[in-house]
Amino acid sequence: MPYLTPTLVKRVSPSQTDITWNDDHFSSYPSWYLRENCTCAACVEEFSGRRKIVHGNIPSTVERISVAPVGNYALQFVWSDGHETGIYTFEYLRKLCPCSQCLPQGLEDPPESVLNPGSFEA
Ligand SMILES: [Zn+2]
Ligand SMILES: [Zn+2]
Q1: Of 2, 60, 82, 94, which sits with the fewest C-beta atoms within 10 Å of its C-beta?
Q2: What is the predicted pLDDT for the residue at 9?
Q3: How remote is the C-alpha of 118 from its chain's centroid?
Q4: Predicted local distance difference test score (pLDDT) of residue 113
Q5: Nearest listed ligand to the Cα of residue 94
Q6: Closest ligand, as measured to the CA of 101
Q7: Is residue 22 part of a domain?
Q8: How far, in Å, from the CA of 40 to the mean position of ligand 1?
Q9: By three-state DSSP, how is residue 110 classified?
Q10: How many whole angstroms from 7 Cα to the centroid of ligand 2?
Q11: What is the mean pLDDT of each run of 10 residues along the chain (122 residues)?
Q12: Phi first, then psi: what are they for 11, rounded to 5°?
């Protein structure tokens, strides 16, 4: 399998980012979905790997403030809830692809607003 990298990262809107891959696969990510799946130390327990953010913690209204490349292996997003420590490797982004081929069950939209967005039990 060739090393998968994006050939195009398109800021479609603050709530949607599209990636075209070098194998011509196309992924379209809602911002809330990427934010929900952040793998930084604040979002995932270091030792257990347990995710501290679960579906419903992130409102569907969260927006992408910016996206920038990290080296040649990842993207770093800044989100409207102030979170900016998440680095998404290309490999991980591809695994997250929510297209009907990669994720046949599809995505379930989270609520539009949540009490204490992004909060979790420590
Ligand atoms: Zn995070
Ligand atoms: Zn896909």
Answers
A1: 2
A2: 97
A3: 14
A4: 86
A5: 2
A6: 2
A7: yes
A8: 4
A9: coil
A10: 15
A11: 87 98 97 96 92 92 96 96 95 97 94 74 52
A12: -85, 85
Cα(43)–Cα(92) distance, integer angstroms: 15
The number of folded domains in the chain is 1
Closest ligand to Cα 82 = 1
- Specify if 10 maps to a domain: yes
Amino acid letter, residue 15 = S
The pLDDT value recorded for residue 121 is 56
- Distance (Å, whole) CA 39 – CA 19: 19
- Residue 107 Cα, ligand 2 centroid: separation in angstroms? 12
**CATH number of the domain bearing residue 40:** 3.30.2020.30
As given in the structure block, the two tokens for residue 99 are: 């297209």
Q: Which ligand is nearest to the CA of 38?
A: 1
Neighbours of ion ligand 2 (CB under 5 A): 97, 99, 101-102
